TrEMBL record, chains A, B:
Entry's Gene Ontology molecular function annotations: peptidyl-tRNA hydrolase activity
One GO term describing the cellular component: cytosol
Signal peptide: none
Name of the molecule in the record: peptidyl-tRNA hydrolase
CDD domains given in the database record: PTH2
Domain of life assignment: Eukaryota
Keyword ATP-binding: no
Origin species: Asbolus verrucosus
Entry-linked NCBIfam families: arch_pth2 (TIGR00283), PRK04322.1 (NF003314)
Membership in a protein family: Belongs to the PTH2 family.
Gene3D superfamilies: Bit1
Length: 113, 113
C-alpha cells in the first residue's frame, strides 16, 4: 500500500497524518468489498504502508489515473476543509494493496515524504 | 476516532503518517470484527479522525489503559523499526469509533498534533 501526499498545500503534520489515515481505511474498505486478491498477504506481512510525496495536483491526479488504468485498487482523498485548507481540495491518493511491481511502475520516481 | 502520536521519538512526517494509517486500519478492522455499535455512524459521518500528541511513552500507555478500562475499541501501534526508530517502540495509540464523550474524557487534555 502506497499513500501519496501533496506537499504544495503546506499541511501540518497532524493534517497529513489524518489524510494518510483516511486513505488507508478507504483502501482497506474497498479491498475488502472487492475481495482484492492481495489483501490477505498484505495483512499477513504487517500491512506495509509507504508514504510518498508530490508537489502538485497534476502529478497526484496523473498517478491516480495511472493506477485506475492499470486496474489497481486506488482512492482519492479530499479534505472536508474545516481546518487549514480549502474544502474539497485533493490532498492524497492511495494505491494498493497490489503487486509491488505494478505499484512501483507508477510511483518509483516519487520521493518518500 | 482519535489517534495519539508520540512526539518524543522525533519521527518525521512520513513516519508519523504511516503510524496514523496503521492505527486507523487496526481500529477499523477490530471495529468490524467486534460489530462495534458506533462503526456505522462513524462511516456515515465521513470517518472523522483527530490526531493528538503526547510527549512520552508513559502518557501514551496510560491513555490506552484508560480506553481499555472503559471498554473502548483501542489499539497500540509498535514500529517494525526498519527506519528512524528502535524496533518495537510504541509509536501511537488509536481509540474509537466510540461515543465522543467517552473518548473526550480520556483525551481532552491532549493537544492536536
Amino acid at each position: 500500500m502506497v499513500i501519496i501526499i501533496r506537499t504544495d498545500l503546506n499541511m501540518g503534520k497532524g493534517k497529513i497524518a489524518s489524510q494518510a489515515a483516511h486513505a488507508a481505511v478507504s483502501l482497506y474498505e474497498s479491498a475488502l468489498k472487492s475481495s482484492n486478491p492481495h489483501l490477505k498477504s498484505w495483512l499477513l506481512s504487517g500491512q506495509p504502508k509507504v508514504i510518498l510525496k508530490v508537489d502538485s495536483y497534476n502529478v497526484l491526479i496523473s498517478v491516480y489515473d495511472g493506477a485506475k488504468l492499470n486496474n489497481l485498487n486506488a482512492c482519492v482523498i479530499r479534505d472536508a476543509g474545516l481546518t487549514q485548507i480549502e474544502a474539497g481540495a485533493l490532498t492524497a491518493v492511495g494505491i494498493g494493496p497490489g503487486k509491488e511491481e505494478d505499484i512501483d511502475k507508477l510511483t518509483k520516481t516519487l520521493k518518500l515524504l
